Amino acid sequence: MNVDVFYQALIEGVRAMSWLEILAAIFGAISVVCSKQNSIWLYPTGLVSTGIYVYLLSREQFKLYAEATLNAYYFIMSVYGWYHWARKKPSEPEVPIAWASRTEWIVTAVTALIGWAVFYYLLSHFSNSDVPLVDAFVSATACAGMWLLAKRKIENWVILNISNVVAIPLLFHKKLVATAVLTIFLFIVAVMGYFSWKKIWKSYSK
After folding, report:
1. What global pTM score does this model have?
2. What is the DSSP-derived secondary structure letter of residue 127?
3. DSSP readout, 61-101?
4. Could you give the C-alpha distances from 182 to 69, 139, 174, in angstroms and in order?
5. Contacts of 19 (CB under 8 A, 6+ apart)
6. What angle do CA 68, 69, 74 make, to 5 degrees?
7. Angle, helix 156-173 to helix 3-16, in steps of 10 degrees
8. Which of 4, 113, 153, 196 is 20 to 30 A distant from 107 in Cα terms?
9. CA nearest neighbour of 189 among 21, 30, 23, 20
10. 101 in Cβ contact with 171 (< 8 Å)
11. CB 183 within 8 A of CB 174
C-alpha cells in the first residue's frame, strides 16, 4: 500500500468514526491509565469501554466477532476484578512478578494455537466474518497474554503486543480509527510495562 492510498484510507476511517467508538476508545484509554496507576477506577471505566465494544464490533458493519467475544470476556473479568479488588484486604500480599516457566510457556502456546483454531473454525463456519483468520489470531493471542498477565508473568507484555501489532492494521482496515489509535497507545503502554516489570523483578533479587 503506497502513502497516498494509506492516507485516503485513513481519511475515510476518520470520517467513518462514530461517537460511540470515540466514547469506547476514551474510556478504554482512561482504564489503561487507571491500571498503570493501580486505581480501582480501571474496572468501571473498563466496563463502559468493553460493553460498548461488544456491541460495536459485532455489528454487521465491522463483523469482528472474535474481538467482540474477547471484549465480552474482558467485561466479565472486569466485574470479577472489581468485586475481588473491593473485598481485598490491604494486608494481603500481591502475587510477585516473575518470568514464565517452561510449563507456563507451553500453556500459553497451546492456548494461543488452540484458541486461534477454534475462533477461526467458528468464524468461518458460523458467521459472515470477512477476516476470520486475522480476527481469530488477534483474539487468541490476547487471551494467552491475559492469562500470563493474571499470573503476573513479565512475558505477558510481549504476547499482548504480538496481538496489538496484528490488530492495528486490522482496525484501520475496518475503518475503526479511534480504536486503532487506542491500540497503538496500548502497544506503547505494554512496552513500558515490560521494562517496568523487569525492573521490579530485578529489585526482588537484590
Report:
1. 0.85
2. S
3. TT--HHHHHHHHHHHHHHHHHHHHHHH--TTSPPPPPBPPP
4. 18, 16, 14
5. none
6. 95
7. 90
8. 196
9. 30
10. no
11. no
Q: Residue 155 — φ and ψ, nearest 5°?
A: -70, -10
Residue with cell 468493553: 50
Which three-class secondary structure state does DSSP give residue 1?
A: coil
Q: Which amino acid is at 188?
A: I
Summarize pLDDT for 5-63 with one digit per residue, the tens. Answer: 555 655 665 666 788 999 999 999 999 888 877 688 989 999 999 999 999 999 988 99
Residue 153: strand, helix, or coil: strand
Cell of 202: 530485578
Helix/strand/coil for 61: coil
Query: Alpha-carbon distance 203 to 23, whole Å?
Result: 39
Rg (CA), the chain: 18
Strand partners, 153: 98
Q: Which residue has the higher pLDDT, 65 or 60?
A: 65
List, as one string, the DSSP characters of 92-113. Answer: SPPPPPBPPPHHHHHHHHHHHH
